[in-house]
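Progress note, project year one: complex with NAP.
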Amino acid sequence: MNKKQNKEAVCVTGANGFIGSWLVRTLLQQGYTTIHASVYPGSDASHLFSLPGAASDHVRLLVYEANVLDDRAISKAIEGCTGVFHVASPCTLEDPHDPQKELVEPAVQGTLNVLEAARRFKVRRVVVTSSISAMVPNPTWPPNTVFHESSWTDLDYCKSRQKWYPVSKTLAERAAWEFAEKNGMDVVAIHPATCLGSLLQPSLNASCAVLQQLLQGSKDTQEYHWLGAVHVKDVAKAQMLLFETPNVSGRYLCTDGIYQFGDFAERVSKLFPEFPVHRFTGETQPGLTACKDAAKRLIDLGLVFTPIEDAIRDTVESLKAKGFLRQEQLPS
Ligand SMILES: NC(=O)c1ccc[n+]([C@@H]2O[C@H](COP(=O)([O-])OP(=O)(O)OC[C@H]3O[C@@H](n4cnc5c(N)ncnc54)[C@H](OP(=O)(O)O)[C@@H]3O)[C@@H](O)[C@H]2O)c1
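Model obtained:
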């Protein structure tokens, strides 16, 4: 990842979200000077202009308001770019009232609209932000085997348990591969685990809310939504690495290890004993095989993962600074 000026013009969808903002920050840091920031119409993107380098004379950070379901608007955002980072997709902990409309359609049709525009404008490569939620839960995975990129989420299993977020991410990724193959496009997918780190955006995103709730005593085991965690800055670095490295293809798991959510809670509790973090007994992810270097494909490309303790500390500091976390004291 060498820093040089006049890199390709790129579009980032979901640019003002948690991962999107870190990606814009990383692209600016690495010398990208034309960035189309595609954001949901009416949402706040002002924080992007406070990122280091955003206000430089030679930088063109342009905001495009585009619902990913609006193919004309998304087309305008992508026109003039040779790279696209598709990040936008509903990412929520709330149970949807209408899963198809709220989660599945924006994920799937949104991805197809982005890819169609990228095809039309002859974009060189599209980096699709998928998720571990397109890999797990997968109850048919062989026991005592570390999860890797060949695992796909079991849709029937998720639907029968009303787990719509994994359904949306799985169908979106499948649609992306089908479209890419049919149209001979260069698409690469990244599969982040639970992303943590400082919030650059003003609102609280779902993955940082997982840590916030854990710190406030939540007993949710994250049974269906967990493989491990990763610093959001490493995700942004990995997205850029996957855009810049010539011979990459397929799926890239992005996590600093695979382990139980209960083990994560232990680490959080050790770092922040003043918070009432629940101590889980037994396995929170039954049968999950732990592995430190699970993101082997990215490690082989040179990515060095930030220790998860740093990501936890950064998140907590940021949650406090933004007023999303009160300093709770355990009764003495
Ligand atoms: N955070 C994680 O732990 C994690 C892990 C794996 C994968 N991912 C994936 O990473 C991506 C970004 O997630 P995030 O954590 O950064 O969450 P986030 O902060 O909620 O970002 C999602 C972004 O997508 C935008 N969006 C949603 N629906 C849209 C639509 N119909 N049209 C245009 N924009 C739309 C949101 O805009 P508004 O906020 O204005 O609605 C927001 O900017 C998602 O694809 C998510 O599935 C996240």
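The chain has one domain: 10-196+226-257+292-308.
DSSP finds ten helices and nine strands in the chain.
No further modelling is planned for this target in the current period.
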